[in-house]
Structure prediction request, 60 residues.
Amino acid sequence: MSLEDKAKATAKNIEGKAQEALGNVTGDPQDQAEGKAKQAESEVRHTVENVKDEVKKKLD
Prediction:
């Protein structure tokens, strides 16, 4: 996983957690859902990059 992609995915995860927490505090279900969606997107990005890394290792 490139360092830049990893940083972006981590930032998206943190953003999602913050937004979900804000939604929990304010009782806003839309913020909660958007926060969870951002966290899921981050997880997918991490998984894709990990698969790329594994394929690259096997090809080397």
